[in-house]
Design goal:
single chain; mainly alpha; MetI-like fold; 15 helices; globular; MetI-like_sf; membrane; transport; transmembrane; transmembrane helix
Length: 295
Amino acid sequence: MTITLKRTKSDYIVDFFLYVSMTLFGLVTLFPLYYVFIMSITPIAEVLRNGGFVIWPGEMTLEAYKYIFSSDRIPNALKITIIVTLLGTFLNLMVTMFLAYPLSKRFLPGRNFVLIGIVFTMLFSGGLIPLYLVVSATGLLNTIWALIIPGLVSSFNMLIMKTYFENLPGEIEEAAKVDGCSDIQTLFKIVLPLSMPIIATLGLFYGVNHWNAYFSGIMYLTDRALMPIQVVLRNMIVTPNVSSELGVNISELQQLPPETIKMATVVVAIIPILIVYPLLQKYFVKGMLLGSIKG
């Protein structure tokens, strides 16, 4: 038998205010993205006519995108960012998984000592200068590995994955071992297929972190050919001469305002994440809940 609760007038009033609040919050959140995109496709004449602030352009142009891709700097920066994001995320997940799985076993000798050491690193760190000296001493400066190896594993993400592994039924692994599976085979054939929500969630965390990272590029890279898109974008924002950063003829820039070039670069930098995030969103809530609550 289905029980239907009768909604009162106060319920509808509360729903109305909730929907209005959520709509306003969504508009406030999306407006900066909308404004950046609109500015990137607005002709210079209209930008100047409206004092640099345009909500809806009368005309649209893709000249800014043609301009930034006429230089090798943006395509090369995108290539470096894609390589670092894909390779870095894969290595992040592998190292996190190989660390979290054995630590999820209570019978592991020295387990508590290792966990205390990992939690300690979440509270205290050596600082930027010792980190830079380590990266320099290991020969990672001016290589893409400097953007990956120093942050190869996140203690927080490792603890979430460890908790997720602890919540998996132990009987499944015992049955796999009875069938003759080794620990590695159990991990790859049994545990990982059951752990796709947490893998997708942490992969999203690691991937977004790699894609948006710019500070490590500023610290460890001086070769422009190795700079990711976020570092190029940062340099474009802080420098008064956009053409010098892109390495193109300054006469071409006279047809476009520098702000339009910057906005187009911002759009190019955020589109891949906007595409990937909805694909992994369905795993996000489930992965975080199962990985943070001990059942």
